[in-house]
Amino acid sequence: AQTVTQSQPEMSVQEAETVTLSCTYDTSESDYYLFWYKQPPSRQMILVIRQEAYKQQNATENRFSVNFQKAAKSFSLKISDSQLGDAAMYFCAYRNNFGNEKLTFGTGTRLTIIP
Amino acid sequence: EPEVTQTPSHQVTQMGQEVILRCVPISNHLYFYWYRQILGQKVEFLVSFYNNEISEKSEIFDDQFSVERPDGSNFTLKIRSTKLEDSAMYFCASKAVSYEQYFGPGTRLTVT
Fold first, then answer.
1. Using the beta-carbon criterion (under 8 Å), do B31 and A101 form an inter-chain contact?
2. Number of A:B CB contacts under 8 A?
3. Mean pLDDT of all residues in chain A?
4. Is beta strand A60-61 parallel, antiparallel or unpaired with respect to A64-69?
5. Range B11-22 average pLDDT
């Protein structure tokens, strides 16, 4: 079974600075996707960024980028120019690229932005 | 932009009562999911549904749970006899083939 581990329960960053959230995962599969979801206080789950395992290039979405290290099974999220609206829980998630493609989530990192 | 909707946003029920949580997936999506998040914990997979049948369920999804797509648009999760530990946020998600899962806003279930 696949597992996702987020070892940082809480992180904080000064507004406009850069922060990196860590995630590691375990799988025996070679074809899969990794995601970061943001959960603000409203508790809505919002997709931030996606990475296909077969792609070597790291995904980027505006101020959000990932560092995907397939051999190390590491998938960190970098948030540049942090904004107050980035404050939320961030969940790393994994899914296989076959079958019903259910998501397996990590335990989350609570990110606080310091004005 | 199309979105997944869920009703009610908050449901309070007494232990032992039946509850039905409702979801309207995005119209052209084919895969449907329910996830659960106990307060302060991670999001956990409950069940996936495709082609009018359950494709996978977790160990959480026991005989007290059932899902249904009664009319081609709604997707429901029923808990037959609620327990205190069923208190959680329940998320519905849907996806088309080869695209991402889109989550609804969730239903907060409180069992007293």
1. yes
2. 52
3. 94
4. antiparallel
5. 98
